[in-house]
Amino acid sequence: MNKGILFFGVFTFFVIASGAAAQDEFISFKLDGKEVRLTDVKLEWNADDYVTIEGKAVEKVDFGANAHPRFREAEAGITFQLTPEDGSYVGTRKASSSDTLPVYVTWYKVGKEEGFVVVEDHMADMDSSFEGQYFTVTVENFGDEGTLVKGTFSGRLKGDDDTLHAVDGGAFAIRRRNVKG
């Protein structure tokens, strides 16, 4: 067998395998009943002993042929931080304020105003006391750097419109990365 063909075959296998590994990482949830799936995700362990889980999606919004620039970016995402309980990240945590479990969800709505396309950015969090707000995260497994960490989450978060927004059916699968520095 030709060594060049063998090398190409092995190289192709690793390229396909690394692409498959990246595809198994995601964060998904329903925000007020609307499906959200984020594939630009990361789970970072910090040496100060906390984990940041973050995901985002960026979309190009068409503002029309006469707009300059015509296409502009709009972003949706979620970020939350966890600290270990009894030395472990595995388990369920429920919080009703950002003091114990900081969480932020962002989204946008595209609409029209006086014939022009507008994008409204929104955020929901637990930064202020608001009756009925909570966030629950369950981490199913946790390991060394490179481990595919899986878990679930749900909650009710206060939005910038002073109403509670439902975050339901949340799930994540993200490889652990250690923050250097």
Briefly, what is this?
With 181 residues, the protein is mainly beta. It contains one helix and eleven strands. Strands 3-4-5-7-8-10-11 form a seven-stranded mixed β-barrel.
Structure overview:
Helix content is 12%, strand content 56%. It is globular, with a radius of gyration of 20 Å. The protein has 181 residues and is mainly beta. Mean pLDDT is 86; it is low at 1-21. It contains one helix and eleven strands. It has one helix spanning 3-23, and strands at residues 26-31, 34-38, 40-46, 50-62, 71-82, 91-95, 103-113, 116-125, 134-139, 148-159, 164-178. The N and C termini lie far apart (47 Å). The protein has a seven-stranded mixed β-barrel.
Which tags fit this structure?
single chain, 181 residues, mainly beta, 1 helix, 12% helix, disordered N terminus
Break the fold down into its secondary structure elements and pairings.
Blueprint lengths: L2 H21 L2 E6 L2 E5 L1 E7 L3 E13 L8 E12 L8 E5 L7 E11 L2 E10 L8 E6 L8 E12 L4 E15 L3
Parallel strand pairs: 3-11
Antiparallel strand pairs: 1-2, 1-11, 3-4, 4-5, 5-7, 6-9, 7-8, 8-10, 9-10, 10-11
What's the mean pLDDT score? 86
The shape is globular
Distance between the termini: 47 Å
The helix/strand series, from N terminus to C terminus, equals HEEEEEEEEEEE
Number of helices: 1
Unreliable parts: 1-21
**Residues in β-strands, percent:** over 45%
Largest sheet: 7 strands, mixed, barrel
